Amino acid sequence: DGGITQSPKYLFRKEGQNVTLSCEQNLNHDAMYWYRQDPGQGLRLIYYSQIVNDFQKGDIAEGYSVSREKKESFPLTVTSAQKNPTAFYLCASRGGTGVFGELFFGEGSRLTVL
Amino acid sequence: SQQGEEDPQALSIQEGENATMNCSYKTSINNLQWYRQNSGRGLVHLILIRSNEREKHSGRLRVTLDTSKKSSSLLITASRAADTASYFCATDAKGSQAGTALIFGKGTTLSVSS
What we know:
The structure holds two protein chains of two kinds. By secondary structure, chain A is an all-beta fold. Chain A has no helices and eleven strands.
């Protein structure tokens, strides 16, 4: 089935550790996105990528890093510089750089700092 | 930057009643989309309305768009308990490149009791 797979679903991190969240899509979409969601809040954009080997900062990029070496993959690293990383992280993709269409979301990764 | 603001923040109704949620946004748009999120899950696309459209229907969903007021409404008719979820509006800013990120509001939490 076509879709977006995020892993792990739950992740615990100790203070000072970097962690990487995986996002893989088999929809052949050019654009991919990472959003952060806090309880009772909307989605805030962390990073997005419109094409392989290119990505742009969103509104809350500080303390995060990404890479886009393959079309299918857009991993997010939450670094120790992110002071409040406990949140629900959502990855999404969108079809074709010439289309203003719908986003397809993964099921999310919940990160908790111990 | 939060583009859309949904109203109300929370809505509780009985099965069979209609539910109306509103979204206001700040800048001119290419299109406006509505998404649904069940608790702890990813978002699912419901409907997209373009800036030159005024109304759109999909099953029990009816969306209106008033670009002069920069507002949209989502109507769910004959609500069911399974409609219990959070609903978000999201916009593509007019003039933005294809593949740039959607901007989401904070959402309306709908609770439908049987």
